Amino acid sequence: MVEVTLWGSLSAVAGGKAKHEIEAKDIRELFRKLAEQYPGIEPWIDRGIAVAIDGTIYRDTWSKELPKDAEIFLLPRLAGG
Q1: Is residue 81 pLDDT above 60, yes or no?
Q2: What is the DSSP track for 5-44?
Q3: Separation between Cα atoms, residue 25 and residue 14, nearest integer Å
Q4: DSSP strand pairing (56-58 vs 49-53)
């Protein structure tokens, strides 16, 4: 079980709840379980969500394992130039 914080607009998609405890071994499983619970998050996942694990941001690394005591934040991808 890991505790995940949904940051910014992502928490609104989850009914305004920012912190979630989810049983997931890697980022792929985390995204799948979040999409099952909150179907509105799936378009965000498709556009790209950055995953911060203990302060390191992972993008497109869905096989990254989730350590049990890690601090995990999901952030919408930032666009700009």
Answers
A1: no
A2: EE-THHHHHTTT--EEEE--SBHHHHHHHHHHH-GGGHHH
A3: 21
A4: antiparallel
Structure tokens, 8: 């910014």
DSSP state of 60: S
Going by their DSSP bridges, the two strands 19-22 and 2-6 should be labelled as antiparallel
User: Among 13, 14, 10, 19, which residue's Cα sits nearest to residue 71?
Assistant: 19
**Are 69 and 3 spatial neighbours (Cβ–Cβ below 8 Å)?**
no
Confidence of residue 51 (pLDDT cuts 50, 70, 90): very high
* Residue 26 tokens, joined: 């890697």
The pTM of this model reads 0.88
Q: Which two tokens stand for residue 29?
A: 């499983």
